[in-house]
Amino acid sequence: MAYRNEVSYEWERAQHLRELRAGKVTREELCDADFLLRAAAEHHGVDMQKPCPVCGEELRLTRWVYGDSLKRRAGSARSAAEIAEMAAEGLEFTVHFVEVCPACRWNHLLRAATVYARR
Ligand SMILES: [Zn+2]
Questions:
Q1: Residue 44 C-alpha to ligand 1 middle, in angstroms?
Q2: How many separate domains does the chain show?
Q3: pLDDT in tens, 27-82
Q4: What domain range includes position 58?
Q5: Buried-most residue among 89, 94, 99, 111 (CB within 10 A)?
Q6: Distance from Cα 31 to the centre of ligand 1, integer Å
């Protein structure tokens, strides 16, 4: 499988952190991971070997899949292996890579990309 139409949201991430440090937004506003996101980080996420920019705890990477071709699976968190299997079915869909801090609930979309089976 391969990715195309990759979009990075690193600039927005840096912007949010600048605003936090400048006191323009509160920690509560940015660190708002809901129950679903935190559960997904725990059960489907992988350690990113990268500290949370807010509290320094270990970040978890979650992958969310979107697209009509996925039917009921759309909008769910998936492992890299499951995403590879869905691509192998010939489906084309979008994956959102979201970092989550289970400790302080910081979360941010890092990048989005379309997955397709390499033929
Ligand atoms: Zn944190």
A1: 18
A2: 1
A3: 999 999 999 999 999 998 999 999 999 999 999 999 999 999 999 999 999 999 99
A4: 2-116
A5: 99
A6: 8
